Amino acid sequence: MRAIVSACLLGKPVRYDGGAKPCQAVLDLAQKLEVTPVCPETAARLPVPRPPAEQRGGRVWLRDGTDVTEDFRRGSEEMLAVARRAGAPLAVLKAKSPSCGVHVIYDGTYTGSLTEGEGVYARLLEEEGICVVSEETVQSCKPSVEHPVAIVLGTGLGHLAKLVKPVRRIDYHDIEGFPESARPVRGHDFEATIGTIDDVPVVVYPGRIHLYQGYSASEVTSLVRHAFRLGCRDIIFACATGAVEGNAKVGLGLLTDQINLTGRNPLAEWDELRDVDTPFVDMSEAFSPYLRTLAQGVADDAGIGLQQGVYAGMLGPSFETPAEVAALRALGVSFAGMSTVNEVIMARALDMNVLGLTLATNMAGSADTDHSSVLACAERYSEDFERLVRGVLRML
Ligand code: SF4
Fold first, then answer.
1. Which residues belong to any copy of the Nucleoside phosphorylase domain (predicted)?
2. Ligand 1: centre distance to CA 101 (Å)
3. Residues 98-111: tens digit of each pLDDT
């Protein structure tokens, strides 16, 4: 997988003050990728060292009052051409910089204060459709013993739990909020395993409960809150779905967004939210663009077919009627399932980084769909699914 990375994050002394800002998490990531270093400011042949630059009023100024807007534009366009030649789907850029900053930049007062906005170069890359993140995202997604990766597995996908080198097991019934009476349906196990997969710290939940079994949204999301309490910042949801004819086919999928059609929301039930001032949760990037880009890169490198699409969460347990499938198609839905949406809402409320993977085991609404055929299809794709998840874990 290819990526472009701010040269200063890789330790190259290109900053305005003649220094660098190497980031260990980025250096570690760069070992696993085909990296092209970029620095739009040196590409513009601005002197090093020089006074710091910041954006103000839509232009870029050095602290001594020199307008360097055109230099920043020229250097950014030169580095955009480099990114195009590299064919990189991912850019990791230095946070807050007037050229490389992502979403937040210095505010033009040279006091260290920040404002919403994009660096000149970051904006060009985003317009190009490249996933642009700062080193803060890479650091936030990097697993450790304190911050293992949570993996919640759906119907027929629980075999991944067997890959875990276990340190500790936890019966779901010992998890706060998980219903005492819940028993696993076929294809699910109710014991979480803390341990490692390929030396990456993980907590694997090999099964889940569903709204259609009569549980509340708060109960079905109890595993997410448990993972958060264990320190997990990344959470991978894997679920079996039906592919919506015309938008997807049977096979592995990467969730790009979701539509919650269950009529439930865990945040409307969650006791702790009753005490906070603002229960509103930003869902504009429910599935982490960074994790999605890594997953697609892993799939492409490994020759694994991975379709991208929107997931619709249905209450179930009845499968979709032809009219419902037609409605889902018109809504732009690729995958329909009976889980995940409420868990994703809970994870985002806890500010976790979410990756959604699915196995479309059948066409949504098809007459020959039953639980056995779902399990049989999951078995057929189990090797690719395992390679995909292991590849993503190794990349983090
Ligand atoms: S933030 Fe970007 S432009 Fe500034 S030194 Fe680093 S790579 Fe160069």
1. 148-394
2. 9
3. 999 999 999 999 99
